[in-house]
Amino acid sequence: MSILHDLADIIESRKGAEPDNSWTAKLLAKGPEKCAEKFGEEAIEAIIAAAKDDRENLTYEAADVLYHLLVMLAARDVPLDDVLNELARRQGLSGIAEKAARNAD
Predict the structure, then answer these.
(1) I want to staple 8 with a disulfide (CB 3.0 to 4.6 A). Which of 3, 43, 80, 83 is the partner?
(2) Residue 27 main-chain phi, psi, to 5 deg
(3) Residue whose C-alpha is closest to residue 4's, from 90, 91, 79, 87
């Protein structure tokens, strides 16, 4: 997970950077909505690669999805560790039970 933490730290450091010098800074400067839109576009590209059974392209697109997810989280000030802690909380729970617990609220 170190690579994800490293990438999240780099993305965070780009928040105040000059948009002309960094793709990440350019995305963040466009606002959270644009970051979410870009994440969605990348997710669709990954879905298409998976549906076509294109392993090489799916690997490439999955990396894009992870990167754009981290950008979207940073745009909304959601730390990666919050997401990882939520995954840890769910570990060992049945997916059905976890979903039922969320819907009970």
Answers:
(1) 80
(2) -60, -50
(3) 79
pLDDT on residue 101: 74
Nearest to 76 by CA among 105, 34, 43: 34
pLDDT at 93 over 80: no
Q: What share of the chain is helix, strand, coil (3-state, %, to 5)?
A: 80, 0, 20
14 phi and psi, to 5 degrees?
-85, -5
Tokens of 22: 């960094």
Tens digits of residue pLDDT in 35-64: 999 999 999 999 999 999 999 999 999 999
